[in-house]
Amino acid sequence: MSTPLAMFPLSTVVFPGVSLPLHVFEDRYRALVQHLLRIDDPAERVFGTVAVREGYEVGDHGSQSLYRVGVRLQLTDVEANDDGTYEIEAVARERIVLQGLDASGEFAVGDVAEHPDAEGPVPDEVLGRARATFTAYRAAVSELQGTTFSGSLPRDPGYLSWTLAALAPLPMAERQSLLEADSPRERLELVTSLLREELRAINVIPSLPATEVARTAWSPN
User: Is the dihedral angle over the CA atoms 161, 163, 167, 173 positive or is it negative?
Assistant: First the structure.
């Protein structure tokens, strides 16, 4: 069953568990924030996002320029600026599928449906390969940059799959493929394959990968 949901398309792929800071300056999105702030229950201050396909401007999107699978976001912090813009923070929750978009109002409203992961066990060898590959990738990047990564990886296969997906420094299309993967097992196998390709590239060409996305804050909320 689908339901209406205020939408905030972005030029990036967002994964469940990620904490997302946003500078809100466009009129339509300022109107969206004002709409959310009128909701008394903070837990109900939710909106959705899907990624804008590469080659399109965020401010001039049409429904055909958007990916269909995205996430529901919960507004967690708002700071109003003197010029009418906002600094907000939101936490990504569950996945959604965008089935239609109405951009005729103050802000875009999507017709969305839930998109949960398929259930099923994740073999220990899949978990082990994913952890080992990310550990090797993390060590290679640390050696190149002279920096270290902190924190431990989740034990839960679902949380682990979203964490590795969020930390993988990949092009948008590949990150979207990780978001759309049907299950934690499929996502872990895919991110393992993609990170192995990154490792091969690091070993062949001693140049820094695009690691900026690996600094994205992650939260299991």
Answer: positive
One-letter identity of residue 66: L
In contact, 7 and 101? CB cutoff 8 Å: yes
Q: Which residues contact 1 (CB under 8 A, 6 or more apart)?
A: 113
- What phi-psi label fits residue 36: left (phi over 0), alpha (psi between -120 and 50 degrees) or beta? alpha
Q: What distance separates the 2 farthest-apart alpha carbons in the chain? A: 55
Report the predicted TM-score, pTM, of the whole model to 2 decimal places. 0.86
Q: Please count the other Cβ atoms lying within 10 Å of the Cβ belonging to residue 213.
A: 14
Which residue is associated with the tokens 């062949």?
Answer: 204
Please give the structure tokens belonging to residue 147: 């920096």
Residues linked to residue 109 through DSSP beta bridges, in sequence order: 6, 102
Spatial distance between the Cα atoms of 30 and 28, rounded to a whole number of angstroms: 6
Domain carrying residue 66: 2-114
Bridge partners, 102 (sequence order): 109
Query: How far, in Å, CA of 4 to CA of 100, rounded?
Result: 9
pLDDT tens for 52-111 read 987 655 555 555 589 999 999 999 999 999 999 999 999 999 999 999 999 999 999 999
Q: Among the three residues 74, 93, 114, which one is the final residue of a domain in this structure?
A: 114
The answer to whether residue 85 sits within a structural domain is yes
Whether 119 maps to a domain, the answer reads no
